[in-house]
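The data are quoted verbatim here:
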Amino acid sequence: MTKPYVSEMTSPHARRARESKVADGLDHGIDSAFVDVMVDRFYDRIQQDELLGPVFARHIDAWPPHLAHMKRFWRSVLFSTGEFRGNPMMKHLMIQGLTAEMFAHWLSLFRETLLEIGDENAAELVHSRARMIAGSFMAAIQAQNLSQRD
């Protein structure tokens, strides 16, 4: 697995928090290989989905680079690797027509994928992070929509 990002400037508290996050994941079978399978299966499912497939197809030109990017994202979220570079919030704000229904459906497909590849505890650990991320995205999109109406 990719080592968690820890610089000399990292406080002991932050270092312990990262180590605890990694250990918690490993205790549930969540490692880099889990992330690889999760991302590959989930985005296979997304591409076949009637609601979300067309949205992704409009915005992703090449799947292999996107999958590699998403694997870096999830390793950063789950293990604090620090390897992800990007601004997912801005990417999502630029997509016209995203709805709460789409985010709920995304979360449902994600949970189904997690339950296929891990146990209930692993699924809940990863899904709880996904729910927080989706909630942040949806709140920002709703705020943007309100500001555009004014």
The mean pLDDT is 85. The chain has seven helices and no strands. The radius of gyration is 16 Å.
